[in-house]
Amino acid sequence: MIKLFKFLKPYWKMILVTTIILLIQVVVNLLVPNLLSQMIKCINPTLGDSAIIEILKKGGIALAAVLGVIVCQILTSYFSSKIAMGFGRDVRSAVFKKTQRVALNEFYSISTSSLINRTTNDITQVQQVILMAFRVMLNAPIILIGGCVMAFSLDLTLPFVIIGVIPVLIILFVIVGKQIIPLFKMMQKNVDALTTVTRENLTGVRVIRAFNTGEQENERFKKVNQKVADVNRKANVIMGINMPSVELIFSICMILILYFGAIKGTDVADISALTQYGMRIMMACIMMVMIFILIPRASASAKRINEILDLPETILSNDKVNTYKTGKYKGEIEFKHVTFKFPGAEEPTIKDLSFKVKPNETLAIIGGTGSGKSTIINLLPRFYDVTEGEILLDGVDLRDYNPTDLRKHIALASQSVELFGGTIKENLKYGNENATDEEIVNAAKLACAHDFIMEKSEGYDYVIQKGAGNLSGGQKQRLNIARALIKKPCVYIFDDSFSALDFKTDAQIRKNIRENVKDATIIIVAQRVNTIQNADKIIVLNDGKAVGIGTHEQLMEKCPEYVEIVESQTKQNRVKKVKEEK
Q1: Residue 575: what pLDDT?
Q2: Is pLDDT at 343 greater than 80 in this prediction?
Q3: Alpha-helical runs (H) found in 408-493
């Protein structure tokens, strides 16, 4: 938790002001019982008007002190809230930015549901402790010590009753703490599990309904939800037992003060002040112990937050950044003996891969499932860095580029389409925020998306729902391609982005790209041979190795794996054609 204190540095002036106000509040608050005691001592019928005047004086001072305490409390609450909320905002921002910088394999080591909880619930837990620290943790020790001093200034024996009760309170809270702290830790894990199940049920609602497994999912959710409820109920029961016990101890303490005060013949005014100091001392003890109970929960949350902030940023740029490239990017890509292995994997996904593709050339990659096609695509924008070998862009190792600058010159149309809530125009401008309306329309036409867009009543201002549920798969894919085309980089990557399209639309889009996209390198990953057979260079992958590199004609002559793919798809097409004819 201490590691997160660095986020409090920008607020050190506010922290100093809050601490000073808090000290003034505590000192004045401790003077109030003494002032009330003096006011009570002024009650003497024999003094007449002079007694009333003295009571009014003392009462006026006490009232001013109480008003001062109220003002200080308001200011303390205001400043402590600003500090705590600012702290939470800064930590959330740091966690979010961290997830944007780390490599994908590091990012996936923490589940999405857990990441959401860490960004929201865990940060809120730490934030609450920061808030309580300024409202309670700083003033409770001062009230405890100062209250004892003021109590002994009134009587030398009765304050021992209050001090004798403090160990009892501490023992009570230690017992409660030992039971409740493990529950707090368990609660965080159960909330993670609940979020995971909820998220899976919401995102996979179509699959659940298609397989008619609603009852099983309801039962699964019920079990996880019950665990969360049970842990929370147990924690609340313990806390519920705790507060009546404290009130009982407090009441016994007050009775003892009144009893022994009566035996000693202590002045009523002093007894009244002692009960006030006793109340303040015990409330300070309660607040301190409550803080010590909350700290372990916040510490567990802080540990989970630090796990994200401590993720290694392997995708970094070295000191040579921005010294290599000053002119226009050409888009020449070269793999030199590239090997890539996921952390913890037994075998490399890519093994000793070498090839070169020049600007104005189209490179196609084909292969079976798990052959490493997507891994190659993820290496180019530096979502991962190579394990061995090097990848060059215009003769410079990708690791010598600033990742942000590198990605400005690469457009990716991925197989899994991610469209954001907003209009079609806003989604297309995601590729180039400065694109004009003419450029947007032109990119949509190249991707064969203009016609279906114009069929919408709002046209390019048509609002896409969250998850693009109001668009078909083909429409989403065409917008995905248009978003890449509008970027106008030096390298275009189409990662199986034509698979959701019919053959006619597929052919038309590739023709449009071939005729209109100039001075750029095009990389296409595809499963269908007819999508890639006109490429300048085709790489055939098998188990992470390039078993064939060349044109369609060359591979048909010397690459058995490619011939097998072609023949299997040709046979399928023939069968399909015969069925259509029948």
Answers
A1: 45
A2: no
A3: 424-428, 437-446, 450-455, 473-485
Token digits of residue 410: 């690469």
Taking only the tens place, the pLDDT of each residue in 286-326 is: 777 777 777 777 887 888 888 888 887 766 655 454 444 55
The HSE-up count of residue 367 (CA atoms within 13 Å, CB side) is 25
Q: Is 194 helix (H, G, I), strand (E, B) or coil?
A: helix
Q: What is the pLDDT of residue 336?
A: 93
* pLDDT for position 247: 78
Q: Last residue of some domain: 488, 504, 536?
A: 488
Q: Which residues contact 198 (CB under 8 A, 6 or more apart)?
A: 221
Which range of residues forms the domain containing residue 373? 331-409+491-582
What's the rounded mean pLDDT across residues 471-476?
Answer: 86
Helix axes 159-203, 268-309, angle to 10 degrees: 30
Q: Alpha-carbon distance 526 to 500, whole Å?
A: 11
In a domain, 322, yes or no: no
Q: Cβ atoms within 10 A of the Cβ of 167, count?
A: 10
- Tell whether 314 is covered by a domain: no
Of 94-103, 288-297, 354-363, the range with the lowest mean pLDDT is: 288-297
Rounded CA separation 356/379 (Å): 15
Measured between alpha carbons, how far is 154 from 488 in angstroms, rounded to an integer?
A: 83
Are 569 and 529 spatial neighbours (Cβ–Cβ below 8 Å)? yes
Assess whether 187 and 137 both reside in one domain.
Answer: yes
Domain count, the chain: 3
Identify whether residues 203 and 224 lie together within a single domain.
yes
Q: Which two tokens stand for residue 7?
A: 């986020």
β-pair type (537-542, 362-367) = parallel
End-to-end, the C-alpha distance of the chain in Å comes to 72
Q: Parallel, antiparallel, or unpaired: how do β-strands 422-423 and 463-464 relate?
A: antiparallel
Same domain, 174 and 274: yes
51 and 137 co-located in one domain: yes
Give residue for tokens 């937050």.
Answer: 305
Confidence of residue 538 (pLDDT cuts 50, 70, 90): very high
The better pLDDT of the pair 90, 138 is held by 90
Kindly state the average pLDDT of the residues 72-77: 89
The rounded mean pLDDT for the chain is 83
Helix then strand then coil, % of the chain, to nearest 5: 65, 10, 25
Q: Which residues contact 287 (CB under 8 A, 6 or more apart)?
A: 136, 137, 140
